[in-house]
């Protein structure tokens, strides 16, 4: 695993790097946001550990850059703030995880390892395709500026389809990603949800069915 540690407290950053290397991680260290952006443009990292209060570009700005660029680096945010609002804001920027200082080193390692197991690219908090805007943070969806009154399950299915960026998604994949383990794979729940979602999205149709293969979103 390759990790970028961006932390302006040099002693803390170097100590973290030394400890992570003991877990067979390849670690690069920077002490400001501008250097973090530079490194991210050159190297591929599995995870970036970002302090929110970096000098230069803030950790928030670096996180926005990562999620908007579509690179696959996961983000773990560090902060001295302890309020729930601060944690929610950090996650809303597109961060994958969040730790409040001071933290146990063992917990940091466990979280980094968990993040490295996620294979899909980090996604921005707002997805857009063919006039549909999906705001993951606010849990809202619109098409051409009109609000879509979606059920939680319809929202989840639309999220999966938009993440696929026009690629086909099988019914099995939809079940796995949008339903829990108690979903019955032999029911027509996916077909019914697709039908109601297609109706709510309106015309021209955006969800297309490829018989015996799956579904895709696109004009």
UniProtKB/TrEMBL annotation:
Source organism, top-level taxon: Bacteria
Alphabetical UniProt keywords: DNA-binding, Phosphoprotein
Domain Response regulatory: 2-116
InterPro entries cross-referenced by the UniProt entry: CheY-like_superfamily, OmpR/PhoB-type_DNA-bd, Sig_transdc_resp-reg_receiver, WalR-like, WH-like_DNA-bd_sf
Matches recorded under SUPFAM superfamilies: CheY-like
Lineage: Bacteria, Bacillati, Actinomycetota, Actinomycetes, Micromonosporales
Domain OmpR/PhoB-type residues, every copy: 124-219
4-aspartylphosphate modifications at: 51
Record Pfam families: Response_reg, Trans_reg_C
Protein name listed in UniProt: Response regulator transcription factor
DNA-binding region, residue range(s): 124-219
């Amino acid at each position: 695993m390759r990790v970028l540690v961006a932390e302006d407290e040099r002693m803390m950053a170097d100590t973290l790097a030394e400890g992570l290397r003991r877990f067979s991680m390849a670690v690069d260290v920077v002490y400001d946001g501008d250097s973090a952006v530079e490194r991210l443009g050159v190297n591929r990292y599995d995870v970036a550990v970002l302090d929110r209060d970096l000098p230069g570009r803030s950790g928030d700005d670096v996180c926005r850059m990562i999620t908007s660029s579509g690179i696959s680096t996961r983000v773990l945010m560090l902060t001295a703030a302890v309020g729930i609002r601060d944690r929610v804001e950090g996650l809303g920027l597109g961060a994958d995880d969040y730790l409040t200082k001071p933290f146990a080193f063992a917990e940091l390692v466990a979280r980094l390892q968990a993040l490295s197991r996620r294979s899909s690219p980090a996604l921005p908090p707002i997805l857009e395709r063919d006039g549909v805007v999906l705001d993951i943070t606010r849990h809202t969806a619109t098409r051409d500026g009109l609000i879509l009154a979606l059920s939680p399950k319809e929202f989840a299915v639309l999220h999966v389809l938009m993440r696929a960026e026009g690629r086909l998604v099988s019914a099995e994949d939809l079940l796995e990603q949008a339903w829990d383990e108690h979903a019955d794979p032999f029911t027509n729940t996916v077909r019914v949800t697709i039908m109601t979602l297609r109706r709510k999205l309106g015309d021209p149709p955006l969800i297309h069915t490829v018989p015996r293969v799956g579904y895709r979103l696109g004009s």
